[in-house]
Write a structure and sequence with these properties.
Blueprint (H helix, E strand, L loop, with lengths): L6 H10 L7 H13 L2 H17 L1 E2 L6 E2 L5 H4 L4 E8 L2 H10 L4 E5 L17 H11 L3 E4 L5 H14 L5 E4 L15 H9 L2 E2 L1
Amino acid sequence: MANAYPAALRRVISALSKFPGVGEKSAARLAMYLLRTPQSEVQELAQALGELKDKIRLCRRCFAFADAELCPICADPGRSPGQLLVVADPGDLLAIEKVGWFAGLYHVLGGLISPLEGVGPDDLRLRELLARVKADGVGEVILALNPSLEGEATTTYLSQELKPLGLKVTRIAYGLPMGGDIKYADQQTLRESLSHRVEA
């Protein structure tokens, strides 16, 4: 980074360039924008970022992002408790929810089975999933995991664990390429995947 930047500006550029998809040039543009922005707006951004870490936690039931004990979806009495859609992380949940088609509840695993990375079934929220299925009278579990080797391994494992419980286990149909990421799929692809799900 050029030494022409004052130290405070260099620190901001360095911090911003750590964001996914933000290189040094983009970080410098953002920092310059913040310099031109009124002080009140910069303080509002700083406060919002501080509150993000202080107030956002995981829902005690589904493990999605929440600012209370339950996330807005779990707290909504209008959601159908008979269907439970399983995703790897909160970003996938938000992408599917944005489609506006699914009216059931969710369960966030917190990752995918990946032996190469040392992540096994015990490292995910599988016990919590099985407990919810047994306690909440779930009739169908929809597996919505990324079409990757890890996603397929997790789907196979979950299917083997869930089917003996006597409930319907389906998986979303994929219009996504192998190795794709659910959170980056367009809404129509996600809607079609949910509409044409198949037995897992």
